[in-house]
Amino acid sequence: MNVTVTGAGGQIGYALLFRIASGDLLGPTTPVNLTLLEIPSGRAAAEGTALELQDCAFPLLRTVTVTEDPVRAFDGVNIALLVGSKPRAVGMERVALLESNGRIFGPAGGALNAGAAPDVRVLVVGNPVNTNTLVASAFAPDIPADRFTAMTRLDHNRGVAQLAVRLQLHVAEIDGLTIWGNHSASQYPDVFHATAGGRPVSELVGREWLADEFIPRVANRGYEIIQARGASSVASAASAVVDHVYDWVNGTGERWTSAGIVSDGSYGVPAGLVSSFPVRSVDGRWEIVPDLAINAFSRARIDASVAELLDERDAIRALGLL
Ligand code: NAX
């Protein structure tokens, strides 16, 4: 399998590449060719990481290539992990952030369109992740839109972990949590269909705890990590990448998870927007979990996050990047 990681010289790249090469991403019997895409300022770090990958003598790692050329990086790619992006500088306006990233993810989509393998799967990690995914997909008209996904698995995993702590259960006993909307503070972690040890979570926790503690804790966990660590989430983000791709390739069974995918209009999310949904992976494709009843508490929060996604899309359109 040909796996390309963009922003490979960055923090998440460093946490992620060794897990791919060791077999965590695609299983213990799948050999991997790794391509590391960087820009000039990150190239030396990526080259150094390539040396360390060599020193691990991973039995599954066939080749490591470092390049600054997106067309070369995505030629024949099966799994494209788009991690590199332009970070938000202090005082930078949101429109400027959307613009600089639109100028990265448009060409990335074009390069994927030009040479990716027919079965390519794309996971975008770099923020603002939902809108970056929308832009990349728009520039790859020959690749089915359902191959483009945005990572909200870290938010999902954070929510599962918080429920497990609160209810004093193992994470494996929690199912049916959903992250809806944007990977931002407006995201909505929804427990109304979740079960813990087979019992409905909504019977085990009060709405006050949900509104005042659980939802803001999950939505602002990234900030909490920065405050504690002095740096953003890295290993947990890499772990969520592994979970997302592993489930996409191998299936989820009856359990469900969350992923940012191109909306088909389900649950009142306008078709074409990239929003997080409750999803199962079936036969190598993400399917939205159908027919969930959405109560008023959830509806208001989903709508608020979707409104933010519409704003981002409109801003990108106004800039001529979509
Ligand atoms: P770093 O700044 O450590 O690394 C980013 C790397 O991307 C740098 O080495 C840079 O040179 C490279 N890069 C920039 N533009 C590029 C381009 N056009 N092509 C290729 N490489 C390029 O950031 P890191 O901590 O690794 O985070 C990467 C991205 O993940 C950020 O946008 C971050 O906000 C986002 N995150 C997304 C998460 C999610 O759940 N979706 C969670 C973690 C993380 O915050």
From TrEMBL:
Catalytically driven reaction(s):
(S)-malate + NAD(+) = oxaloacetate + NADH + H(+)
Question: What does the UniProt keyword field contain?
Answer: NAD, Oxidoreductase, Tricarboxylic acid cycle
The UniProt entry, under PANTHER family, shows: MALATE DEHYDROGENASE
What range(s) does the Lactate/malate dehydrogenase C-terminal domain occupy? 152-315
Pfam families to which the protein is assigned, alphabetical: Ldh_1_C, Ldh_1_N
Q: Which residues form the active site?
A: H183 (proton acceptor)
Top enzyme class: oxidoreductase
Similarity-based family: Belongs to the LDH/MDH superfamily. MDH type 2 family.
* Protein name, UniProt field: Malate dehydrogenase
What InterPro entries does this protein's entry cite? L-lactate/malate_DH (IPR001557), Lactate/malate_DH_C (IPR022383), Lactate/malate_DH_N (IPR001236), Lactate_DH/Glyco_Ohase_4_C (IPR015955), Malate_DH_type2 (IPR010945), NAD(P)-bd_dom_sf (IPR036291)
Residue ranges occupied by any Lactate/malate dehydrogenase N-terminal domain in the UniProt entry: 1-141
GO MF entries: L-malate dehydrogenase (NAD+) activity
- Please explain the role this protein plays, according to its UniProt record: Catalyzes the reversible oxidation of malate to oxaloacetate.
Instruction: Give the EC number(s) under which this enzyme is classified.
Output: 1.1.1.37
Where do the annotations place NAD(+) binding?
G7, A8, G9, G10, Q11, I12, G13, N101, V125, G126, N127
Q: Which of this chain's residues are annotated to bind substrate?
A: R88, R94, N127, R158
